[in-house]
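Sorry, explain these tokens?

***
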Amino acid sequence: MTVTLDQLKDRAAWMEARCRQLEKKAASQNGKVSLHESWRHEYVSFPYLLGAPDDRLASRFKDIFNNVTELSEKSKIVPLPISSEHAFMEKFTHMLEEYGIRTGGMPEKSILQEATAPAGKYFSNGAPVAAKIFEGYSAPPEPFTVKYGQRQHLEPMLQAGRVRISPASYYNDHVHNPAVRDDEIHRTFFIPTFRERLKGIHHTTFQGIRLEYGDDDLVLPIEAPNYFLPSLCDGIHYRMPTDFNADAALIIRDPQLFAQRVISSFLARYPRWKPHYGPVTYYDPYRDFNKVRVHQMSKHFGYAYQREVRIVMEAYDMPRQPMQPEFLEIGPMFDYAELLTA
């Protein structure tokens, strides 16, 4: 359901009053404000979610909530440091301000239940499986990557360098669990239009094309051609084994060597492809339209807790036949990798 003009006017007036309230408080404190008050003022000065539909706001809340905590080495759910990457605590505070005018402060009970429910899965069988996998293990001092998965698949990878590489389209399948399932081809961005709609404007021109947005924010869908990718993680994170139904973790102590061998093996088979390698760029669909440079190396910020590192193979000429998962042989990995199991 879209936001009506009357709703937009009421909310805009409320935000203006809220902005004056926060500025008055700051003035009474000689400009000294707490961090959360600074975030609140930032939002009410430009409430970019003001015209977003309720269902989109709910999805955003759940995505943010999923990223403001982590699972510690002691198997405890703990909050992320305030200074952590992607500013999720700041985004969460923005959400509280927006919900303040819609519900009085927090999302509906059903949304809160959906947001908090995933935390229970880590303890459904007692201690998280990560506690067993990493018990007594000391992580390498140098940068490393981790492949989480089933032992039956990771053992051949370690012993013979048998690496599965799948097309991006493979992951958008209902058979995968929520942590794995994602549309890796399409990205959707939203450009706030509340100021324009308050003026009676309901369209814009983008790259020479007239776009109607009506009573919604501007929705910009972007599609990337299909590509191949194997995914890794940038370190030991205790949520990952449960999320990926893993009972093992392959620690890759020389990530650059591994990436080089995967890329070389793939290019030996398919020369007309362009490789990319590195950490994934996690984008906020409402705030990061200009942040993404290589779409194949980007992912929705709801998955930011996964801290993914990926190798992408982008085709110069798209294959005529549908792309299917393939296996590469890069040779034994014993010299630079080790397997940990539950």
The chain has two domains: 5-123, 129-185+224-341. The two ends are 47 Å apart (CA to CA). Residues 5-123 form one domain.
